[in-house]
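Re: the request from the purification team.
They wanted to know what the chain is likely to look like in 3D before they choose a buffer screen. I agreed to run a prediction and write the result into the notebook, where they can find it.
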Amino acid sequence: MIPYSHLLHLAMPEVIVVITAIVALMVDLSFLRMATLRVRFGVTVGIATVGCVSAILALAMMTERVNLFDGMFVVNPLTQVVQIALLVVTILVLLLAVETDFTEHVGEFVLLVLLATVGMMFLVGSQNLLTSFVSLELLSLPLYALTGFDKRNERSSEAALKYFLFGGLSAAFLLFGFSLLYGFANSTDFTQIGMAIHAGPLNPLLVVAMVTTVIGLGFKVAAVPFHFWAPDVYETAPVPVAALIASGSKVASFFVFFQILAIAFSGSAGEAMGMHFAQGWVPIVAGVAVLSMLLGNMVAIVQSSLRRLLAYSAIAHAGYMLIAIVAHTQQSLSGLIFYVVTYSLATIGAFGIIGIVEKGSGDDQISSFDGLHKRSPILSACLLIFLLSLAGIPPLAGFFGKFYLFVGALAALPRAGGLLWLVALAIALSAVSLYYYLRVLKRVYADVSASDSQPPPAPPFTVAVVVVLAAATVLLGCAPNLLLQPILNAVGSVGH
């Protein structure tokens, strides 16, 4: 029996984040009620940043590898790398909120963001159906509340309700699939379930469990046809919240998606070679990937709102990331983690710029970005970097993210059933995505705005955060090994 003190030591990063959330709320409610909104955001975000940095240091110093209680709590180099990435994303999202004014409930906002982060961390450190489901709900419930946090925006409340209803439906599908898996394997441990599936034929109940699990997780990552909540949430949620949903939530959800399918369903993968499909989850996920890439890219072309454009772009990117899950190899997992982290950096930066422009123009219409290069050369240059990175243009981080992702899928040809057709389709649709990203940049650099002489109100701290994100996007494109090598080492040491 493991001592409680040792278990507390292993869970210290999560404990630190929880304590930080409580402290931030108490300080805001006790000492900052009469302070200005800017001071309240600055102090509480500062406390949260210190807590997240402390949790990162605790993770970096942890050398133990454990798998406790049938996978309920897992600590290894891979979970540590992903959890550090999640904490960095949380810090960046909170920093975007420092100079905003969408709510007066500052302590509650920071508390919910940190609780969502704790849910992400526990989700990453779990290989068990029970704790994975609980962690997903701990992640999702704060996000539902945060989506409707701007009480002045009625559409934000409507989007929050839609997000909650779709999230509840996805949880029902996921729980039903998990219950069937437990009944089939008599265990909630991913590894034990995988061994049970290996030992027997693919029976109808297992197929139902497979389909409902993919449906439940498909809602979490906003893959087609489970994407209906995403455009409204991206468009109407407060900027920091939309950035968190588009980044940290994606990192954790795709990681657990890979874990469940590659470990728990390892004995029922099937094939998706060209027009030949063998029964299993691979052809299901391959079909979802194709639909996501097609619908996301095609619908993004006609959007007039930059937020909705990023929402449909995110759906397309979910399709690209699902290719790594279809391949389900160590190399594809490394490519997936690199891709989703670099995608998160570019997306957070893009939302930061949208927030600044929205504050000046009152909306996020693409026309509001007309002539931005004259009004704010720094913001326009950063937006250029973020959008071209999302399009996969070298030498930015997004290009190498797609490159490693596609190479990992092609390297899995003998095992995963031949994914050349899927990679070719993804490359072709990436060219389509370049069109709508360039359409935005054309408005920024070629069109003329009626308010050229009036630069958008650019809070200096937010601009500094955006510039740091743009610099990181360029740096990880020019020197991708800075991030990729730790990921490769972590994946190799775990032997996924």
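For the purification team: The chain has 22 helices and four strands.
Please add any questions underneath this entry.
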